[in-house]
Amino acid sequence: MSHSVRLRLVAAGLAALVTLSAQAAAPRPVPKIEGPDFSGSWEDPYPPEVLRPADSPRPVQSVPPAPLKEPWLSQARERQRKAAAAIARGEPIPNNGLRCIPGGMPSMMGTVFPLEVLQSPGQVTIIQEAFAQVRRIYLNEKQIAFEEAEPLFFGHSVGRWEGNTLVVNTIGIKEGVGTVHSPRMQIDERMVVTSADSWEDHITITDPEYLTQPWSYTIKYNRRKGYKINEFVCEDDRVYADPQTGKQRLRTGE
Q1: How remote is the C-alpha of 51 from its chain's centroid?
Q2: Which of 121, 92, 116 is nearest to 239 (CA)?
Q3: pLDDT higher than threshold 60 for residue 66
Q4: Strands 215-223 and 40-43
Q5: Which of 131, 164, 65, 69 is nearest to 154 (CA)?
Q6: C or N terminus of the chain, fewer CB within 10 Å?
Q7: How many CB atoms lie within 10 A of CB 201?
Q8: Which of 224, 248, 250 is nearest to 89 (CA)?
């Protein structure tokens, strides 16, 4: 190998080392978080009735009943009647909450307890204080087919930003979560950031098999400044149904 060739090789090697060093020293680009910033803790802007001043005109947020088809509508009304009668007798019927079963979707979006929103590149995470429920919304991904959606408490959520609105679609809610539904129920949400301290979740649930029409309602949230989500651990089996009577019982110790 001639002297000139060796010099060219050495020069090429030095140039490559300089390039690698420059690349290593260059700061890595910070992943971009899409949409307006609505991270933080949120709560119902309308406090529960027991916490509101007597002269407060603000209503308590409520969800309209599901427009169920028959026979599910009659069955739901009968369950409500029995539950109300049992409470009046002082013998409430054990439900999913008492059995330490989380509400799942869409129930977890309710505002009886505060919730927290976390934003990261490609994902919005919503944590409900009640039962420490965690929901993940994956951004700019294609929704999977109904047939591929393993039934889960919180389903499979994908979303995209349209200005200040996060458009979300959720499928794959397991049986026994929320209202009665078919495997093809889907939940569409438009999470609208209305200000630095408020946002709204416009929810529409469709299920041609169980619902007479789309079931729509809106939940509003106000920022709860300085609040940190508390730990909420449901101690399983403390509340149980007596196998002899079917009545609710509470274990107080061994």
Answers
A1: 25
A2: 92
A3: yes
A4: antiparallel
A5: 131
A6: C
A7: 20
A8: 248
Which residue is listed with tokens 């438009």? 190
Which tokens in the block code for residue 97?
């909450």
Distance, in Å, from the CA atom of 8 to the CA atom of 128, rounded to the nearest integer, reads: 64
Q: Which residues are bridge partners to 42 per DSSP?
A: 115, 223
Phi/psi at 67 (nearest 5 deg)? Answer: -80, 75
* DSSP string covering 113-162: S-EEEEEETTEEEEEETGGGEEEEEEET-PPPPGGG---BSS-EEEEEEE
CA 87 to chain CA mean position, Å: 29
Taking a C-beta distance cutoff of 8 angstroms, is the pair 200, 219 a contact? yes
**Phi-psi region at 194: left, alpha or beta (left = phi > 0; alpha = psi -120 to 50):** alpha
Minimum mean pLDDT range among 15-29, 34-48, 57-71, 131-145: 15-29
How far is it, in rounded angstroms, from Cα 158 to Cα 35? 15
Enumerate long-range contacts of 4-9, CB under 8 Å, 24 or more apart.
none
Structure confidence by residue, pLDDT tens digits, 186-227: 999 999 999 999 999 999 999 999 999 999 999 999 999 999
Q: Is it the case that residue 126 has pLDDT exceeding 90?
A: yes
Measure the CA–CA gap between 173 and 206, rounded to whole angstroms.
12
Is the model's pLDDT at 239 over the cut of 70?
no
Whole-structure pTM value: 0.79
pLDDT score, position 197: 95
Please give the structure tokens belonging to residue 82.
């029995």
